[in-house]
Amino acid sequence: MYIITEGGPKALDLNFTKEVSQRSGEDIQSCYQCQKCASGCPIAEYGEMDTNQVLRMIQFGLKDELLKSKAIWVCVGCETCGARCPNGIRIAAVMDALREMAIEEGVAPGDKDIYLFHQCFLDSVQSLGRVHEATMLMKYKLKSGHLFDDVGVGLKMFLKGKLALFPHSVPTKTEVRRIFDWAKNKKSGN
Amino acid sequence: MKLAYYPGCSLEATAKEFGSSVRAVSKALDIELVEIPEWTCCGATSAHATNHKLSVGLPALTIKQIQNMGLDCVVPCSACFNRLKTTEYQMLHDAEIRQEMEKVLSFKFDGQPRVYDLLAYFVEKIGLKNISPKVQKPLKNLKIACYYGCLSVRPGHITEIDSTENPMQLDNLIKALGATPITWSYKVDCCGAGHSVAKSAMVTNLTGNILAKAREAGADAVVNSCPLCQTNLEMRRPQGEDIPVFFFTELMGLALGLPEAGDWWSKHLVDPSKVANAVQAG
Ligand code: SF4
Ligand code: SF4
């Protein structure tokens, strides 16, 4: 079976549909396009496609289009859609699965700042066991090039004693490393 | 009463006033909080947004530590609560995940749920009937918008909250403190959460809506239970917006007449002392 896309006719990739269902644990095929999810989505205007469209594209197996999309990155995981879906589809879990697949397949993230932020956050957890906000934010700024955003707020936070200069590192971090090794080594599933 | 306590990273940094007020209020309610020794980060949004295994593995380490303590554990931060409770739920309902986590972390999960949202614990386990008699300075004449946000609310089968569209636990607590919770329609809307840094303009639009609706409904202040929401509502608000935002434990401390309360206001990015002083002046 073929589907006509903006880029011409494409074969339906039903393996993709199956894989997203398996990873997310959600019944993608039960979506009947009522759009209840999209109408309550706080980031609907930023994602370049609506939540219900994401579901339809998974049903049609449009893997490339989805994995490189901005929509999967701007989803903030608020779970509003899932709480309202008449078919009980937790779209936040579906979005998690799509992002994870995009990373595993080395697809350039549809929003590189958001992905970079997640990386800086997790690097901090991996090396210290906890997040150290000051060094994590500095790393994000250096890598993203948004060097001077938020300098004023950062200073205010610092003066209020809310941004500690030196990180606290916990001894349990060896166990944290073990978790990171396990999570990164093998392909994940649900 | 003795409870295990998971503060989470924010309460040591950007939400310091939440941390101090949680401790002060718990003490006033005769609760001894035993901080989990060497607790580690729950992984927050960044783990579940990018790596499913990490999103289960990091909180599972905390589940193991809580089990070792043999106590119920309270979690003040909505975001940490959501991650810990989700993992506990998965370990309770999915044998494969449980076995995998037991192997990676070398322990045996005893199947006992122990993770509680601190707010829900106060309202349901300690009970409002035990909190209201301790109120020394009722928050009279104060109209409050109770903002629940996302992570202590959804998904409902995991958080076990009273309602995902119109929860009332925070409203009921605020009422027990003598204030008037207002009726408004943004209590479970999203503030933009973890996109605060990478998508700040988007977050400002969302918080602007929430704060404007609170004001429109007649609120003098907003109260919430999430360090992420608090930071967004204070730091990412549109210019000129001046409605103050409190953590629920700060309003409890104020109503219970705790002397420490005065130390918390200066930590805020939006000064709430006018509202707080009006209450203290009685
Ligand atoms: S979880 Fe994502 S897709 Fe669903 S409503 Fe929230 S932001 Fe939108
Ligand atoms: S609410 Fe559920 S059924 Fe309706 S469009 Fe969204 S995912 Fe499909």
From TrEMBL, chain A:
Keywords: 4Fe-4S, Iron, Iron-sulfur, Metal-binding, Oxidoreductase. One of its GO terms (cellular component) is plasma membrane. One of its GO terms (molecular function) is oxidoreductase activity. The keyword Iron applies. The keyword Kinase does not apply. Residues 28-89 form the 4Fe-4S ferredoxin-type domain. Pfam families: Fer4_8. This is Heterodisulfide reductase subunit C.
Automatic annotation (TrEMBL), chain B:
Residues 4-85, 145-233 form the Cysteine-rich domain. This is Heterodisulfide reductase subunit B. The lineage of its organism: Bacteria, Bacillati, Bacillota, Clostridia, Eubacteriales. Keywords: Oxidoreductase. It comes from the Bacteria. InterPro entries: Cys_rich_dom, HdrB/HdrD_reductase. It comes from Desulforamulus aeronauticus DSM 10349. GO terms for molecular function: oxidoreductase activity. It holds the Pfam family CCG.
